Amino acid sequence: MTLNEKTGGLGGYINGVKRFSRNARLFLAYSLLSGLGTGIWNVMFNLYLLRLGFDIKFIGLFWLVDMGFHGLSAFPAGLIGDKIGRRKTFILATTISIIARGFLLFTIDSNSLLILAAVAGAGEGFHAVAGAPFMMENSERQERTQLFSLDSSFNMLSTFVGSLSGGFLPLLWAGVVGVPRLDPQTARLALVTSLPLTFIALVPLALIKEKAVELVGSFAELFTLRNIVSHGIIARLVLCGVFIGLAFGLSTRFFNVFFAEARRATDDQVGMIFALGSLGAAISVLLSPFLTRKWGKVRSIMFSQATSIPFLLLMATVPGLPLIAVFYIMRGAVYGISMPLRNQLSMEFIVPRERATTAGLTHMVFDLGGSFGAGLAGLLIVGANFAPAFFVASVLFLIPAVLYYVFFASMERKQLAAEPAH
Predict the structure, then answer these.
(1) What is the pTM (predicted TM-score) of this model?
(2) What is the pLDDT of residues 185-234, one digit of tens each?
(3) What domains does the chain contain, in order, with CATH numbers?
(4) In sequence order, what are the beta bridge partners of 385?
(5) I need a labelling partner for 350 at 20 to 30 A (CA). Which of 101, 205, 258, 261 fits?
(6) CB atoms within 10 A of CB 206
(7) d(CA 116, CA 136)
C-alpha cells in the first residue's frame, strides 16, 4: 500500500478507482445514466398530476399506492434476487417500470392511475434490492466505501442533468406543439422523453458478467427464509428503515409540490433547484470515504442525518424562494453523505446468501413507511402550509440518526479491531 493510500489522499482515491473490476466500472456507467430519466420524472410527475386537475390529497394517495406496492414487492424481490442473481433482477425491474410509466402518461382516470401506480411501484421494488448486494460482491473491503460513494455520486450527477432537463422540457415542448407552458400536454411530453433515457441505462447492465457468489439453492429454502441467519442485525436495519421511510414520504416526496404550490416556482425554477440539489449531493457524497476514515461509517451516518434536519425546518419557515432553495441544496448535500454509507453498512454485517433478502426487507419497510408518510402528508398539507408535515418529518429523521449509533457503533469498533493491520 502506498503512502497516498495510507493517508487517504487524492492519489489513493484515484488508485482505488483504477483497481475497480470491469463489472464495477460497468455498474458505475449504469449509475451515470440511470438518473437521466429519473431526474425528469422527479421534477415533473407531481406537477403533471396537478395540471390534470388532481389535488394534493390525490397525489398523496398515488404515492401511498406506489410506495406501498414498492414495499410489498421489495421483500419477494429480494428473495428472488438471492435466487436468480442481481443483473436479471435489475433488467426485469427496469422493464416493468418503463412499461407502467408509459401507460401512466396516457390515462386521466383516477382508478387507472392508481392501478398503474401499483405496477410501477412493484417494478421499482425489484430494482431497489439488487444494487447494494451487487456492489458488495464486486469490490474488496478497502475499496468498498469508495465504490458505494461513487455509485451514489454518479447517480446524483445524472439526476442533476435529468432534473435540469425536466424543468426546461415543458417550455421546449410548449413551443414545439404550440400550447401554453402550463398545459398538461407539455408536462406529459417531458415525461415521455424520460422513458427512452431510462431504457438506455440498461445497456451497461447487459454487458456485465456477474461474479459467482453463493446464492440460495432452492425456492423452498428461499421462501422458508432458511437463508437468513443475521436476525438481530436485520431487525435493527428494518427499524431504522421504517423511520427514514416515514420521514421521506412526509417531506421529500412532496418537495416539487412545495416549491410549485407554496413558493410559486415555475417549472424551470423547480428543475434548476432539483438539479442543484442533486449536484450538491453528488459532490458531498464523495466525502463519504474521507469521513469514514476519520469518524467511521456509523458516526458519519449519524452526523449526516442529524445535521440535515435544521435545513429542512428552515425550508418550512423562512420566506423567499432563493433562500429556501439554498437550504434545500444544503440539506441534500449533508444528507446525501449518509446514503452510500447506510447501503454499505447494511451489507457488511451479513452473509452473501442473505444480502438481497435483507435489501428487500429494508426497502420494503422504507417504502411501506414512505407510503404511510405520503398518505399522511396529503392530510397534513392544507393549502400551501407544508410546515406540519416537515416538522413531523424532522423528528422522524432524527430518531434513526440516533438509532444507527446505538445499534451499530460497537459492532463497527469490533469489526475494525478484528481487521489485520496493513
Answers:
(1) 0.81
(2) 999 999 999 999 988 988 888 887 766 655 555 555 555 566 677 788 88
(3) 19-418 (1.20.1250.20)
(4) 382
(5) 205
(6) 11
(7) 33
